[in-house]
Amino acid sequence: MKYENTFKAIDQILWKEQGCGSELDYLEQKSWMLFLKYLDDLETELEDEAELEGKSYHRLVTGYYRWSQWAAPKKKDPVTGKMVLDVVNAMSGDDLVEFVDQKLFPYLKSFQSNATTTGSLEYKIGEIFGELHNKIRSGFNMREIINMIDELQFQSADDKHEMTVLYESNIQRMGNAGRNGGEYYTPRPLIRTLVRVVDPKIGETVYDPACGSAGFLCEAFLYMKEKIKSVKDHEILQKSTFYGTEKKGLPYIIATMNMIFHGVAAPNITHGNTLALNLSQIQESDRKDVILANPPFGGNERGEVLQNFEIRTSETAYMFMQHFIKMLRVNGRAGIVIKNTFLSNGDARAVRKMLLDNCNLHTVLDLPQGVFTGAGVKTVVLFFTKGTPTEKIWYYQLDKHFTKTHPLTEADLADFVAKQKTQQESECSWTLNVADLDDNYDLSVKNPNKVEHVDERTPQEIASELVNINKENTELLKQIKELLG
Description:
Elements: H1 2-14, H2 23-52, H3 67-71, E1 74-76, E2 83-85, H4 94-109, H5 111-114, H6 121-131, H7 139-150, H8 157-176, H9 188-198, E3 206-208, H10 215-225, H11 231-239, E4 242-246, H12 249-262, E5 268-271, E6 288-293, H13 303-306, H14 316-327, E7 328-339, H15 349-358, E8 359-366, E9 379-386, E10 392-397, H16 414-420, E11 429-433, H17 459-484
Parallel strand pairs: 3-4, 3-6, 4-5, 6-7, 8-10
Antiparallel strand pairs: 1-2, 7-9, 8-9, 10-11
Helix pairs in contact: 1-7, 2-7, 2-12, 4-6, 4-7, 6-12, 9-10, 10-12, 14-15
């Protein structure tokens, strides 16, 4: 609750800021301050660890640019002996905004050009502050927010977990707020289920070429972290496992910080347009073992981008599907969320054929409307392995109703996970033989096992039940009136 109450209080302050008009702005502004406090705590932790080992740690953020210097200078309280904010030396008002805009952000941005490698935390800090902008114009509001954030601690595993869970919920709210947000938030229960089914292993590479806020990569990291057995395993997860690309500026920044908050110190996330890569230029060294993604659909791409694909299409999701197939290594595995029209749309026919010819599309999970809050679209999840053509596809239809107040949970998907292991047939699952398909390669969800429940009551019986229900309601109202006197 500590973090939740703090985040709510910060949002109330940001609501007063003219430059902050939406959940997107609130998250952006909270993020850069949270990040600098988190980074200061992280560097202190690394400094202490190095000292215990008789080594030295060279801080990235030094001098007055450290959070503990400019944001939260401390002095000892003469009464309690505790370290408290040095209100005399803590900037507030215009001097604070001027320092942040004219000194702090340019200093942090310079890290990008000073870094020796693009894969370092130093470089990532420079990228983040080259993209972000401080929108808080009141130094007094900023001082209030800084004081609240400074109270948060990120040293313990529990603290970090609580913060990342709340940060994810803020990203979800940003997605539900519309604008750009809805494009890059996928419900975490769905992501965790995809990760569990695909089962990425330490030593494999995990890739999301439309990573949004990096939800798939964060969940894959948490899943794989449980399998660490050595220092080498830890190093592999940190440096050479997770790869993502994001086209838009704010989600790219959020993705980078989200990965760092979850424990990946220097995420391999790049800012760029995946679809601008010509598929013919992909080398074996570029390919990945696991792809987890929810590619955007619709969208507009320039004419030259369409030339990068063997199958020309204006639908971005179908371009991404071609990219996934090309980017997977042989025996590589994928879990892809896509609009259900991909299964039958005539424009996607050639892409479906490419998928079936080059990969084993072994599982299709059919999701109902309501899984994506406010999106109003039906989606499916495609699970496939590259290297052998598809012979049989196992379908599972999740026949449940979800709303904003009754969202999807992992428990809702537990039956799917259990049945998927053996591809068990049931009322909600069945198998399709690819040999039975015609030239349209229509993979539509058509459940042959679903039992239609027929209401066999006569009209007289239904009318009688309605009369009884009406009598019960009348009696209940009478009792309520008696209780109210």
